[in-house]
Each structure stands twice: as C-alpha cells, then as structure tokens.
Amino acid sequence: MIRPFPELENIHAIPIELPGFEDLKTANIYAVGRGPFTLIDTGPKYPGLLEQLNYELRQAGYRLGDVERIILTHGHIDHFGMTYSIREAAGRDVACYIHPEDAWKISSANTSQDLWDHEAYEVMALAGMPLAEIEGIRERFSFFKDLCDPINNPCLMEDGDEFFGNAYHLTVIHTPGHTPGSVSLYESRSRVLFSGDHVIKHITPNPLIEMRRTDLRDPDYQSLRAFKKSLDKLQSFDIQYVFPGHGEYIEDVADVIRTYSVHHRQRMELVWQALNNKSRPLFHLIGDVFENVPEGDAFLAVSEIYVHLEMLINEGRAELADPGPPALYRALP
Q1: Measuring CA to CA, how many Å separate 117 from each of 145, 202, 271?
Q2: pTM for the complete prediction?
Q3: CB atoms near residue 150 (< 10 Å)
Q4: How far out from the chain centre does Cα 69 lie?
Q5: 245 in helix, strand or coil?
Q6: 3-state DSSP call for residue 232?
Q7: How are beta strands 26-32 and 11-17 bridged, if at all?
Q8: Any idea which architecture 11-112+150-251 has in CATH?
Q9: N or C, which end of the chain is more exposed by having fewer CB within 10 Å?
Q10: Tell me: domain 131-141+262-331, CATH 2.10.25.10, correct?
Q11: Prior bond of 281 cis (ω within 30°)
C-alpha cells in the first residue's frame, strides 16, 4: 500500500487497491469540502468498492447523501465506473461534470458496445499486429465493460471553470494528453493539484492514440505534443501537493515533470534507432523499444511507440515509407 496522504482540512483522500492492475497501485478518490462536498473521480465498479468507499467516507465524517457534485478528471473506466452507483446510493441525481472532449467515453453509446471496435482493429492492423494478438486484446477490453455503468448527458466543464463550496475553491485546468478531455483541478486554499492521470509519481502517464479523431475539436491533435503543452500550463500554479489518480501524492511536481521529459526523449531515440536500419511496422518495434511488455499490453506498447513516432515526424527525423497495411515507417538522417 502507499504512504498516507497529508492531513488537510476539508480534503480527504481515499486510495483504493486495484486487483489485477498492480502497476497502477491504487485508484484514488477525493472528497473535497464539508457538509455538501465534491467527489473527484469515483473508481471502477468493483464488487464491494461502494461499501468500502461509504465506510471510508463515514470514518472521515462524510456521508454519501451529502455529495453535491462529482467531477471526473477524464473518461476512463477506472475513474468514472462507480459514478452511477454513487448517485443511486446518494438517493438523487448528483451532478456529474466532465470535459466535453471525453463526454462520449462515459456514454451508453460507447460503453454498451464492444469497447474494442472496428477502428481499433484497423489501427492495430496498420501497426502490423497479428490477428491473434488483436483478438486477445479485444477479449481483455470486453472485461472492462463490467467495471462501469454509463453516464448519459453529464454536465460539461471547460478550462478555467470554477467550483466553490464550504472552504474550497477548485479551478478546472484542461490538461489533454492522456485523453483529449483530461483535466486537472487546482484547489487554491490548500494549493493542491488533483491531477487525474496527467501527473503520477511512480509511472509516466501514457499519452494514448486517439481513435475517434472525427470527434476532436483539433483535427491535428497529437497526444504527446498535447501532454507536453499541458505540463507547461502547470508552471503558473503555486502547487504544494499533487494528489494523482493513482499511487502516492507528490511534493515536488517539477522534479517529476523533469523525469517525464527525460523519459520521452529517451523513448523517442529508441524508436528512431529501431527504424534506422530498415522500414518497419510499429508492432515489430516493440522488442527494440521495451525490455518487457506484459501479456495483454501490446496495445499500450504500440500506442506509446506511435505517439513518439509522431514527434519524430514533426522533427523531420522519420517518415511514412509505405501506407500499407501494414504501414511502414523509416528513420531519416
């Protein structure tokens, strides 16, 4: 388990262990305020998790019936999965906020269908991934559907929006990269940044391939480029602690961000070197770029290679050699 969070007035952290996702360590849920209070993220819909959340809240002097609003840092299942259950337990339709770029991810139109859709098939086929590997990932994604209930017609929030309550003031910071609609929340009184999956201490967050490109506000969106710009936005905030979506709190956010910069530059060099001898599809680069990829994580590996390849192309150091399928890329001098 992780070390205890700092004891702050009107902010209570509830880290929940995630069986089967040891690399994430925990899913962190935060209660902010007193009396009517705000929940930041809700965790996945694991059996017994609602009861655990209710117990932890009561131990800290909160009641689920006093939830005024739920704010989701982004639209991934491990952050919104239990929202519907919390609303039911509260006995009313608690307002649920999310950035519009991620609103489709939590809707029934998305969660009721196969989360590994035809577009994902096409992307992985272009990457040169074998059909058996694609099917294995699809089966894993089908399991995720059991970890959430959809949220339709949520309230939408934008960069700069503010939420006020009893002894707290939250400002929305749009921090795309992990997803196009990822946000962080800054509490000005305690100088705490709730970072979702934008800043995490023990792992480098994955800027992911975005599939639904026709739904994006920016048709030229690139997740790693957006992620780096989002990190730069944090420099204007006086941050005492970062309370992330997973794992331990962070005291020196600048130091963590520096490690991200080193990591991504090194990863770009590995991708460039892997392409330096001949044109290759992305799936064939995995062994050159990663020391070890756990079973079922080939999608994340391909995704990370792709976003670094986009940056290499931006810098004029790589190019598409053959549109395929599979698509072949090569390094440039």
Answers
A1: 13, 31, 27
A2: 0.95
A3: 17
A4: 20
A5: coil
A6: helix
A7: antiparallel
A8: 4-Layer Sandwich (3.60)
A9: C
A10: no
A11: no
